[in-house]
């Protein structure tokens, strides 16, 4: 929803502005009566109040000569009992120069009264240092403060800092009395209420102004003294202000009505004053703390200027007040006049410092608000004036028709028509004002909505180029920024990855080690760029000529860092708005949110890109592995040589796409069959390559080995050792079966001993083929092997396996083990070699129950059959 115009705030500001102007004009007249009225009499002393009694303070020379002393108790004025301040005020207002003011006074603590007849003189018209300081305090300071305070508040009516600024400046203008008791009935009461309220609220406004200007005090860093000031000092200051207003208002008309309260509160007067000074001191403490902890160089500069300017302005006067409070005396009694005048003159620096920080240093981004606010006021106000004028014209015409000649029906018709026109004028004015609202406020509303929606949208964009384009375009369109550039890190430099509004390609490279990148990484927030400001970080930092030239090419007014976990991923450079308005606090808040979301999305995009690249690589690797698997499948026997009296079969199931297990059947001379089964160390491609090398070595030498298979394995070991790395080796079982003699000659090189099940034995006798052999192949360069042989009778079954079967585990990490393997082999009586392998694999799978296996599983089965049957 679009925010409604702050009508209530403007009404309050208007009333307060009228009251402030009326009071200051009347106070100025009272301060310089001699310049405006030659018949005005000078005040011989100022009425005060102490310990429940009216007193005379700041006694002038004429009163002193007549016998009046400082702090004398005054009981009557011109024969009238001194019942209230108004008695003295009215007497002075009616008196003329040359007349005598008769008062009755007595020394404090004495009951002896004396009459003093004070000759009244005309107010001085000469100009001297005293008058110059009074003019500064009574004319220049109030006028400047009112213009500054209400100017800021009228253009920023919703900003709490603007309202606190008014309170601070109005309180500054009401330090000293203005002789309100002589202003006449009712006026003096309203004026004194205004002055006392501003004076009492000043410490409180100073306290909160320090906490909220130009940005709210960071709550997470609030120190104990801040909490003490807000929750202890502030309530006591408010209480003191309320009581002081009540006492002062009562003293105007009647001392007696508030005497008890005044006496009671006078006991705590010094305590309440100290709390007021503490509240004022908290302003300086807050500004100092924020200037020390601010991250942005612009914010640091503004706060330090504010701290120095206000300290120089208020500290001398506050020091004198503190000393006077301790010694219970008046300033002019305790200090030289020139010192008091200098401390008072320095007060003018306070509003001047605030004006410089707000306007020149852009603390509240006033320029765009002024322009939009003024345009809106003129446009909207013009519509209202036009509506009133047209309505008045229609009503005037209706009245004329009503009194003119004509039938009753004609008169009623014209009046109805006029009423209809008035209603239509009202509807048209309402629509026109809505259009004006859209014209002047919609841009800001749209920008806020667009940027907030953008922060949510970028989370779903996972491609870098569309992400940068969407962010840059949305920011440019919502804030009307003609030039936007996004720079991303590339080889130690931040280079443009996307840009809008530039004439040609951007040749910009901000070094990662440069001052700009360092500032953005350290500040972690938006940084304004003011090339025309000598104190801006651009001119104050040690920028190299190349870096300055790169920045100038971007033409930035704001730099947004894209940071994720202290990692600067990129920089968004925003140029000047088309309206030439500075970036407001709302802009910075929204842009910072967008930058945060963009950085996260950019990090996700890079992660997604890396994942996509990795997926591509893995798909390519998987394709390569699939090809390798197919090649490895071709390395396994594709056709089994027919051997008389022997049924044999083999199968390999790899844990990965390719594996290191190897089995082979070789058709040897004289009708013999070579049987090989090996297990290469490791898994995957490396093991598969070693397996291929083992197969090539074995096949290359097996044909000429004859019956010397021990020598064959010795040579295979040598070739595998030369062809592989130190960590590559293999277990190998190699055998040759002679169908003519039914003998199986074999060498076991570190492999699992094959299992021989004799058919002739009852229930099958199990033997292990582990009589001869040697160590694994490929591990040691020189290694000798022994061979052995065994006679196989018809029906005998030989099962050669790798440890992938015996070490197969279920989900409880329990191994299948050789005992279960033996049971499954023994139970294969009468099955063919293929059937034996199928039965064993089924038994192993049933045990592991789908648990993933980490090792290749290979089996070879040989069953001797009677070929004569």
In short:
It is built from 26 helices and 23 strands. By secondary structure, the chain is α+β, with helices and mostly antiparallel strands. α1 (7-31) packs antiparallel against α5 (129-155) and α7 runs antiparallel to α8 (224-253).
Structure description:
By secondary structure, the protein is α+β, with helices and mostly antiparallel strands. It contains 26 helices and 23 strands. The strands form five sheets. A six-stranded antiparallel sheet has the order 9-8-7-12-11-10. A hairpin with a 2-residue loop joins strand 1 (46-50) and strand 2. Helix 7 packs antiparallel against helix 8, helix 8 runs antiparallel to helix 10 (269-293) and helix 15 (366-403) runs antiparallel to helix 16 (408-457). The radius of gyration is 51 Å and the shape is elongated. Residues 367-376 and 440-445 have low confidence and may be disordered.
